[in-house]
Design goal:
Blueprint: H1 5-8, H2 26-38, H3 42-63, H4 68-72, H5 84-88, H6 99-113, H7 115-120, H8 132-143, H9 145-153, H10 174-185, H11 204-215, H12 237-272, H13 274-358, H14 367-382, H15 385-397, H16 402-427, H17 445-457, H18 465-475, H19 484-493, H20 503-518, H21 522-535, H22 541-544, H23 552-564, H24 572-579, H25 585-611
C-alpha cells in the first residue's frame, strides 16, 4: 500500500492507516459485475454512469413544457385564476405528477425564468409586475399536499359534464359513451381500487358490484380553493369566524352539487346500460318459467291436499283442544296474578294512608286537612303499585320534606288530570237523543246552575266525581234529590262537556238573575240599584258596559297573578289587575271571593259524599 503524504511528512504515525477489503453493493455491485464480465475499466463505468444521469436530466427537461407566451400573459395579482400545472410546464401529467417531478419542474422554471437570468440576457424586468411570482405561487400550491388537493378538486381541465340517458334505439356504444367518464371520475374516489365498467360479457355480480360502489360513492373532492374570502386577511377573530362560516356554507353547497352530479351520472348509466335490460329480461323469463312449473305442480298438489284434509282437520281439532287447555291454564294464572296485584295494591294504599295519617296529612293549617285527605284518596284510587310504592319511599326517605314531596306530587297529579279532562272534553261529542229519558225529571234553572258549578269545582279525576256533584246540587237546592247517573247524563247532554265556555252557562245565570228579581220587592231593588250606582267607581270600559263573564284566558291570567303576587306584596290587587288585561281591581277581588266560596262549598260536598 502506498503511504500517504501525511505519513511521509510525519503527521500520522506509521501503521495508522490499514488496508481493508470491501465489497461493492447496490449499483456499485452491478457496475463491478458488468465491468468484470465486459472487460471494461472503472473509468469507463464512471463515464457511462455520468452520461446516464445527464441523459436522464435531458429527458426530464424534454418532459417539462415551456410556454413563454402563456407565462407572459399571467397577472401576478390574479394567481388564483392560473393553471398551476401549466405554469410549471407539467400540464400533461397534472394530477399524476409526483412530488419529485414537481420539484424538478420548478427548478427547471427557476433556472430559465428567474429575473436575474433574464436580466442578464437583456430582457426588461418589471419589479412589481413579473410573472416569476406566478411560478413561485404555483410551486407553493402544488408543493403542499393540502393546497394541491384543493386545486386538484377544481382542476380547470376536468370535464364535469354528465352524458344523457341513451335512447332504446340509439346506436351509440354504451361503453364508449360512459366508460371514459367513469374512468375520469375515479380520481375522486376515497376507496380503492375502483370497480371498472366492464364489457357486455360482464357477469351480473360484477355489474351489481360496480353500481353498488358508485351509488355509495365516497368522494374526497372539496372546494376550499374556491373560497371567495380569505379568513387570514380578517381584521379580528370575529371577522375570521364569520368568513369561515360563510366559506363552509359555500363548500357544503358545492359538495352537495357534486354529489348530485355523480348520482346523476350513475342513474343515467344505469338507465342506459343494456346489460341491466338484459338481466331484467332474463329475470322475467326465469319468473315465467317458475310460474309455469308452479302451475304444473298445482294440480298434483291439490290432489295431495285433498288426501291430507281429513288428517289436517283432525290435527286442528287436537291443536284447538290443546290451545283451550293452555288458555284455561293461562287465565287461571292471570287470575291468580290479578288477585296478588290487588293484594299488593291494597297493602301499598294502606301504607300511604297510614303514613299520611301519622303526619296529619301533611297540613300546616287545619283548613288543608280535608283537601289533603281527598288528594290522598285520589292517589290511592288512581295510582298503580309502582307509583304508590315510589311515592311512599320518597315520603319516608325524609319526613321533614314529606309535605314538600306530597304537595309536589299532588300538583303533578292535578295537572295531569286537568290535561286529561281537556282532552276528554275535546273528544266527547253530543250524546244521542235517546239519552234524554235517562236524565229523570225536568231540570230547573237553579239546578242547571248548580250542576255547572259542581262540574267546574270537581274536575275529572275526582274520587266518586258524579256522586260528589249530585251531593253538591242536593245541598244547595230545595228540589227533589238528584242521583249521580242523572247528573252524568245531563252533563253529557250539555255542550261537549266544556261547561266553562258554553253559552248555556250565561243563559242559566241570566235566568237565575231574573228569578231573583221576581222574588224580591221592586222598591228594594230600585233603592239598591241607586245606592250602588252612586257609590260605583268606573275603572275600565268593561265596567261601564257592565261586568262581562270571565273567560278561561282571563281566569288563567288571574290564577297566575295570584301565584306571582302573594298576600305580602304591596298594592297586591293593583298589580293583579294590571296583569289581567280588561279587568279592574274590583273585578279581580270579586272573582277571588267567588272562587273562595266555591272551594268551601266543594269541601263540604266532598265531606258529605264521603259520609253517605
Amino acid at each position: 500500500m502506498v503511504s500517504s503524504p501525511e505519513i511521509r511528512q510525519g503527521v500520522l504515525p506509521a501503521g495508522f492507516l490499514k488496508e481493508r477489503e470491501v465489497e461493492p453493493v447496490g449499483r456499485w455491485f452491478l457496475n463491478q459485475w458488468d465491468r468484470i464480465n465486459s472487460n471494461r475499466t472503472i473509468s469507463h463505468g464512471v463515464l457511462s454512469e455520468s452520461s446516464g444521469s445527464e441523459s436522464e436530466e435531458e429527458d426530464d427537461e424534454e418532459m417539462f413544457e415551456d410556454d413563454l407566451e402563456y407565462l407572459r400573459s399571467l397577472d401576478p395579482k390574479e394567481t388564483q385564476e392560473q393553471d398551476h400545472y401549466k405554469v410549471l410546464g407539467i400540464s400533461k401529467l397534472r394530477i399524476l405528477a409526483t412530488d419529485d417531478q414537481i420539484k424538478k419542474a420548478h427548478r427547471h422554471k427557476v433556472l430559465r425564468h428567474h429575473p436575474d437570468k433574464r436580466k442578464a440576457a437583456g430582457e426588461e424586468i418589471k419589479e412589481d409586475d413579473d410573472y416569476f411570482s406566478c411560478i413561485t405561487k404555483a410551486f407553493e400550491i402544488l408543493g403542499n399536499p393540502a393546497t394541491r388537493r384543493a386545486f386538484d378538486s377544481v382542476d380547470p381541465t376536468f370535464d364535469d359534464d354528465v352524458p344523457e340517458v341513451l335512447k332504446k334505439d340509439s346506436k351509440v356504444d354504451f361503453a364508449m359513451k360512459f366508460g371514459p367518464v367513469f374512468e375520469a371520475n375515479t380520481r375522486w374516489s376515497v376507496k380503492t381500487p375502483v370497480p371498472q365498467l366492464g364489457t357486455m360479457k360482464s357477469s351480473r355480480e360484477d355489474v351489481d358490484t360496480f353500481y353498488s360502489f358508485w351509488f355509495d360513492f365516497d368522494s374526497w373532492r372539496e372546494y376550499s380553493y374556491l373560497d371567495e374570502e380569505d379568513k387570514e386577511k380578517a381584521g379580528d377573530k370575529w371577522e375570521r369566524r364569520e368568513i369561515d362560516k360563510i366559506n363552509k356554507a359555500q363548500r357544503k353547497e358545492k359538495k352537495a352539487d357534486e354529489t348530485k352530479r355523480v348520482r346523476k351520472l350513475v342513474d343515467n348509466a344505469y338507465n342506459s346500460d343494456p346489460r341491466i335490460a338484459k338481466f331484467r329480461e332474463e329475470e322475467k323469463n326465469e319468473k315465467l318459467a317458475k310460474k309455469k312449473a308452479k302451475a304444473d305442480q298445482a294440480k298434483a298438489r291439490r290432489d295431495e291436499e285433498e288426501r291430507k284434509v281429513r288428517e289436517q282437520e283432525e290435527a286442528e281439532r287436537k291443536e284447538k283442544e290443546a290451545k283451550e287447555e293452555v288458555e284455561k291454564a293461562k287465565k287461571a294464572v292471570e287470575k291468580k296474578e290479578k288477585d296478588e296485584m290487588k293484594r299488593l295494591l291494597k297493602i301499598e294504599r294502606k301504607k300511604l294512608r297510614t303514613f299520611a295519617k301519622d303526619l296529619n296529612y301533611f297540613v300546616i293549617d287545619e283548613d288543608e286537612k280535608l283537601t289533603h285527605l281527598a288528594e290522598v284518596e285520589k292517589m290511592c284510587e288512581l295510582y298503580n303499585i309502582e307509583q304508590l310504592k315510589d311515592l311512599v319511599e320518597r315520603l319516608e326517605k325524609d319526613k321533614s320534606k314529606a309535605r314538600e314531596v306530597f304537595v309536589k306530587e299532588m300538583n303533578k297529579l292535578n295537572n295531569k288530570m286537568e290535561e286529561d279532562r281537556i282532552e276528554e272534553a275535546q273528544m266527547t261529542g253530543k250524546t244521542s237523543e235517546g239519552g234524554k229519558s235517562k236524565t229523570g225529571a225536568e231540570w230547573d234553572t237553579e239546578e242547571l246552575q248548580l250542576m255547572i258549578k259542581s262540574v267546574n269545582a270537581f274536575p275529572a279525576g275526582t274520587v266518586n266525581r258524579w256522586e260528589v256533584c249530585a251531593e253538591f246540587i242536593n245541598q244547595h237546592s230545595n228540589f227533589p234529590p238528584r242521583h249521580a247517573k242523572e247528573v252524568l247524563f245531563k252533563a253529557k247532554e250539555m255542550q261537549s262537556g266544556n261547561f266553562a265556555m258554553t253559552s248555556l252557562k250565561d243563559e242559566v245565570n241570566k235566568m237565575a238573575y231574573e228569578n231573583l228579581q221576581k222574588g224580591q220587592d221592586r222598591k228594594v231593588l230600585e233603592r239598591a240599584a241607586r245606592e250602588s250606582e252612586a257609590s260605583q267607581r268606573t275603572e275600565t270600559t268593561s265596567e261601564m258596559m257592565g261586568t262581562a263573564p270571565w273567560t278561561p284566558e282571563e281566569q288563567k291570567l288571574l290564577e297566575q297573578a295570584l301565584k306571582t303576587f302573594p298576600s305580602s306584596t304591596p298594592e297586591r290587587w293593583d298589580r293583579i289587575s294590571e296583569a289581567v288585561s280588561g279587568r279592574s281591581k274590583k273585578d279581580c277581588m270579586k272573582r277571588y271571593k267567588e272562587l273562595a266560596e266555591l272551594i268551601k262549598a266543594k269541601k263540604a260536598a266532598m265531606a258529605a259524599a264521603k259520609k253517605s
